[in-house]
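Appendix C reproduces, verbatim, an entry submitted by the partner laboratory led by Prof. M.T., so that reviewers can inspect both the input and the predicted structure.
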Amino acid sequence: MEHADAAPLETPKQAESTKNWADAGAIGAVMFETAVLNPAIDQLNFIASMGTALINHPDILLELLGGVALVVGGGSMIGGGGALAVTGVGAVPGGGVAWAGAGVAATGFLAVSHAAGRWTNEAVGDDATNVVERPSPRRHPINIVTTTACSRTRTGPALPSRSRGEPEPATQPNEGSTAP
């Protein structure tokens, strides 16, 4: 009756199935990390870096807002000049205002693009922040599976540990050897 409490033996087919499920789980974990986790970590760190860049360089924000204001103002000038030119009486001044508005809007686009470039350069340069760190490669599921599957146990006496600078212990010749 003592054998009734013993755990049932695992057949080779069950052992192989268990190993296959472990391998599939490790591969799934790697795929999830590669396709979902790493891009999300990169995006989060980049957004944090963009915020840090704006905090450290408020002039970039002012340049962005100024550029947007120029684009809006230039668009209004284009609309107003076009409306004035349609009346016929104000064709000459309306056309001039519309062309000036196009110049103001183009200047605004240049200011916005310059500020966006500076903002990105600062975010990936000096103001880069890592809010979330990636997991260590040593704790990676694939490394754990292959390390445990390929590890060998060493038999024999433990090797003595030596600290740096300590001389190597003298070895005793074996009995019957012809070593000098």
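The chain has a mean pLDDT of 79. Additional entries are available on request from the coordinating office.
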